[in-house]
Amino acid sequence: MKMKETLQLGKTSFPMRGNLPVREMEWQKDWAEADVYEQRQKLNETKPTFILHDGPPYANGNIHIGHALNKISKDIIIRYKSMSGFRSPYVPGWDTHGLPIEQALTNKGVKRKEMSVAEFRKLCEQYAWEQINKQREDFKRLGVAGEWDHPYVTLTPDYEEAQIRVFGKMAEKGYIYKGLKPIYWSPSSESALAEAEIEYKDVKSPSIYVAFKIVDGKGLIDEATSLVIWTTTPWTIPSNLGIAVHPEYEYAVVVADGKKYVLAKELVETVAEEIGWKQVEVISELKGKDMEFMTAQHPLYDRTSLVILGDHVTLDAGTGLVHTAPGHGDDDYIIGQKYNLGVLSPIDDRGCFTDEAPGLEGVFYDKGNKIITDMLEEKGALLSLSFFMHSYPHDWRTKKPVIFRATPQWFASIDKVREDILNAVEGVEWVQKWGMQRLYNMVRDRGDWVISRQRAWGVPLPIFYGENGEPIITPETIDHVAKLFGEYGSNIWFEREAKDLLPKGFVHPSSPNNSFTKETDIMDVWFDSGSSHEAVLKGRANLSFPADMYLEGSDQYRGWFNSSITTSVAINGVAPYKTVLSQGMVLDGEGRKMSKSIGNTMSPDKVTKQMGADIIRLWVSSVDTQADVRVSDDILKQVSEVYRKIRNTMRFLLANTSDFQPAEHTVEFSDLRSVDKYMLIRLNQLVEKVEKNYDKYEFSAIYQLINNFCTVDLSQFYLDFAKDVVYIEAEDAYERRAMQTVFYEVVVKMAKLLTPILPHTAEEIWAHLSEEEVYVQLAEMPQVEEYENESELLDMWGAFMDIRQDVQKALEEARNEKKIGKSFEAKLTLYPTEQTKDLFVSLNSNIGQLLIVSELEIAGDKKEAPETALQFDSLAIVVEHAHGETCERCRAIKEDVGVNKSAPTLCARCAAIVSENYPEALVTETD
Questions:
Q1: How far apart are CA 418 and CA 228, in angstroms?
Q2: R_g (Cα) of the chain, nearest Å
Q3: Which of 702, 704, 681 has its CA nearest to residue 693?
Q4: Which of 248, 353, 498, 927 could form a disulfide with 357 if both were Cys (CB 3.0 to 4.6 A apart)?
């Protein structure tokens, strides 16, 4: 028998390299065959629920790294809750209607105008399912567990039925109405947009000052005077019907370069400079309220504009006289209603002028800016033209500018439920406290919700019209349409005539001849996803309403968080969620927004094929997702280094417990050595801190805690000196079994703690353990233990760690002076203070072994240390090369090597171990 064979060198089939791209798929196949997700649900079926309701991603294209961040974060929470005493099923969802799918089909060459709406919608549905199937596989590949065979999808008949019922309940309460008012209109999409579909970009716009000549100045202003307005949208001048002034502001009549004008007194100097007036004199003043009902000549057309009073007028910019076009602005519309100005919006769906704007027919509104300024100049009404950069609303899908345009649209009233929504917002727990204020302000300041869209692919508005044009929305019609959609899907709306969609024998006073038509607009897609609390949370027996949590990106304050609370409060009186957690956006390594044009996007599919899903999952846990996060190849390489550290630490523990049977070999806590107790207490602290951070959704803290425990507590301390025990002592030696008890406990608890973040790796670790559960996912999170003398042990070993740091500094200095190479070559002579000497006694440990030196002498008091000793607060240290020979077996330098004549190459300790347990090795050596 060779001497090497007397060592307990750990062996394990747990590989050093994870080979995650291959092994993860094998684990996922195994989980699917064993239906591990369903097994977990059955284990939890009598437990309290925790429902995280999935915000549906849009079914178009492959998933991106932002999707991965979102879905993995949800999976971490749900896996943790499922292992922590909760029933936490996960139902993934998809948002499937809307313009992007229509555009995708057009880009593929589908000629929409050559087929019926119903035929086109069938192609849209087919495309949506293709995208869902693709994305579903991408999400599953990331290790996200859930009801993938039974997701919720906004195009399915059951979902559409529930959505129609949400609409019906809102209509029954009087929240749905049709109105002609300015809304965001996207000429590029040819459709109305909600506020949630708007994003802002900087654009260059004209800035013009225009003179409106007085027609009737009520005896206060003569007809040779002009009112001066300012606008950045010359294209709206043809729609001007009024000029608003503030009732309390002072207005000045000025003579500027020989002509008379009216503007706010406070702005005379600023405007004079902007327009370039040389000589300006104020000749009279009057209050805004005195100007009410004056009239001025429209600068382009043969009509007058009425002077009206409005509190929305400010002195922040302009002239204090506000160009008012009720067809193109919210404030303008509101004040126009008050003064019965009417609504003029001479722009068609494509953004081109109609014949209501003579001389501009067919011109695109943006091109109209130059034509109109030229016309104003020709009429002598243009006082100034300049250009400036400012933020302007754009269609978030087409990325092109939008306009305010008055069109007949269907609205959901926010005014009628605003206070209720605001109260509900305040009742929600916001993980980010600022989230409450953000949504509160949005609800407080928003106008009524435009819910109609002039598209084909979506859930149709279930509205009929009588012969006199009166809209028909009754509980009877809603219920009938909802049932039809539930049975056949919403495409039936486009396949049947209105009469065939109404209840049998339906009559209505608006149609004496029983002739009906139907609405052709569809609902805003935010109404689709905003109805998920009814279709999913209330619609599935294994879920509950309201959800415990909604978790999405911070862009959803204007989107899903907003539409969901609006519809839920409108029909249920409560928010659909108890807690909201929002996440930041994913940026590249330099902090730039990801963009295909820049070429800085990152595909999760590519990363999983190269590095594995667990690396992406570990990255998710490493970043503070509550703010914007960064990712790049370099960042993922750094994360993979941490993964390698965790994996190799677990491998060492598994290798050195391969002969350990927990039921047979576990040493009770009370019988462990002091250092082993200390390590179990440190593990217990880790469990407590990690679980607290799971509860607070602070994943990055968990990442740091686990990395720190593996690196500092284990690798740099406990496992560092452990080799001198688990390799060297006899197989059944007390010290070895004591350390193995700790090792095994660490692996079991670490596997559980890691499962929500690294399910594949945790499962691989678990397969090498002798635990009752076949899969770690079916185990419970470790309990926080209560240990005897816990604080005393922590204080004692904390003090030792400080001393150890001093020793390491001394060893490093000796290494630099070439006295030693490795620390195992050193002899330490320690001169402790009385307190430190007492500490060494109370530790009751092999201090030399803990410090990984071959020889240790605890000499006299610190005051007796020689001048050459290194001085520290609690002791002085002398480092020299150890005396003696190197033991062949333990590699320590000992003066007692060869004392046992039958073991000439072994120290006394190793000779005793080998003599008692492996005498044949000694015979072999002497032979």
A1: 37
A2: 38
A3: 702
A4: 353
Reply yes or no: is the peptide bond before residue 346 cis, omega within 30 of 0: no
Give the end-to-end CA distance of the chain in Å, rounded to a whole number. Answer: 11
* 323-329 mean pLDDT: 88
Residue 773 CA to residue 769 CA, distance in Å, equals 10
pLDDT, tens only, 795-821: 999 999 999 999 999 999 999 999 999
> In this predicted structure, what is the pLDDT of residue 201?
86
Please answer whether residues 647 and 615 qualify as being in contact, where contact means their C-beta atoms are separated by less than 8 angstroms: no
pLDDT at position 927 is 43
- Joined together, the tokens standing for residue 20 give 């995650």
Nearest to 164 by CA among 496, 504, 474: 474
Per the CB < 8 A criterion, the answer to whether 344 and 326 are in contact is yes
Tens-digit pLDDT profile for residues 19-47:
999 999 999 999 999 999 999 999 999 99
Question: Per DSSP, what are the bridge partners of residue 660?
Answer: none
Token digits of residue 744: 């095994």
Q: How confident is the model at residue 652 (pLDDT cuts 50, 70, 90)?
A: very high
Alpha-carbon distance of 80 to 782, in angstroms, equals: 11
Distance CA 275, CA 907 (A): 100
Distance CA 626, CA 553 (A): 9
Distance CA 211, CA 458 (A): 46
Query: Is the CB of residue 583 less than 8 Å from the CB of residue 84?
Result: no
- At 674, list the tokens: 């002091």
> For 73-98, what is the mean pLDDT?
96
Q: Is the pLDDT of residue 925 over 60?
A: no
How many other CB atoms are there within 10 angstroms of residue 414's CB atom?
A: 17
Other beta carbons within 10 angstroms of residue 141's beta carbon come to 20
Q: Tokens 């090792």 map to which residue?
A: 743
What local confidence, expressed as pLDDT, does residue 596 receive? 66
* Backbone phi, psi, residue 190, to 5°: 55, 45
CB 503 within 8 A of CB 478: no
Q: Which residues neighbour 347 within 8 Å (Cβ) at sequence distance 6 or greater?
A: 185, 353, 354, 365, 403, 405
Q: What is the pLDDT of residues 40-60, one digit of tens each?
A: 999 999 999 999 999 999 998
Average pLDDT over residues 860-876: 92
Region of residue 632 (phi > 0: left; psi between -120 and 50: alpha; otherwise: beta): beta
* Structure-token pair, residue 68: 């991965």
CB distance 604 to 63 below 8 Å: yes
Distances (CA, A) of 609 to 14, 20, 21, 586: 21, 9, 5, 20
Q: How far is CA 905 from CA 40, 728, 887, 917, in A?
A: 56, 15, 6, 17
Q: Are 216 and 230 in contact (CB under 8 A)?
A: no
- pLDDT exceeds 70 at position 924: no
The single-letter code of the amino acid at 781 is M
Nearest to 194 by CA among 396, 399, 473: 396
Q: Residue 390 contacts by C-beta under 8 Å, 6 or more apart in sequence?
A: 202, 203, 205, 232
* Three-state helix/strand/coil letters over 119-132: HHHHHHHHHHHHHH
DSSP assignment of 837-900:
HHHHHHHTS-HHHHHT-SEEEE-S-GGG--TTSEE-SSEEEEEEEPPSEE-TTT--EETTTT-S
- Angle made by CA atoms 405, 407, 410, in degrees to the nearest 5: 120
For residues 730-749, b (16+ Cβ closer than 10 Å) or e, as one string?
A: beebebbbbbbbbbbbbbbb
List of residues 6+ apart from 412 with CB closer than 8 A = 170, 175, 176, 448, 449, 451, 527, 566, 570
Span 161-213, pLDDT tens digits: 999 999 999 999 999 999 877 878 888 888 877 676 788 888 888 999 999 99
